């Protein structure tokens, strides 16, 4: 089976800013149309992605163990972790807020950790397994990354509502800072991963195609 040429075979590089296919024969550093920096590939993609992901995992532990907010109602106050906050909102009938916080704080980071780890391990091994699906998985990780700060916003809105209605007082705690770091680091991890690594192992692919053709 004939393999279609890639941009590197034609000595071209796509500008990430304006989309121009730039001729790399003279190794230009910037795009001739918009003057944006040109990169054939993301530098040290796997190393940087692993570093950000492992750092996010480290911060994820105190983000779940430390309280994220302190709620004072009618003179009595209590600290709440992420899980404690979810249960508290649920018990008070605010199941929609509880569900939003659970999805954004527990489910989304968990999915990102598993998905990025899968992408990294398979890319490092040069795996040909489900490459189209892995590319779709990477785009999904990018998509859900935009909603990772949703629970922080919800907590801020609830705090503002409580104070506005003079029902009590809500103050942030250290856990929210660690969770914010988790969100930033997982986003940087996803941004550092080069999805073209999924499709890189052409030599192995040609061997597999040759075997399949006989």
TrEMBL record:
Subcellular location: Cell inner membrane
The protein's name: Paraquat-inducible protein A
Entry keywords, A to Z: Cell inner membrane, Cell membrane, Membrane, Transmembrane, Transmembrane helix
A cellular-component GO term for this protein: plasma membrane
Record-annotated membrane-spanning stretches: 50-69, 97-122, 143-162, 174-193
Keyword ATP-binding set for record: no
Primary location recorded for the protein, binned into one broad class: membrane
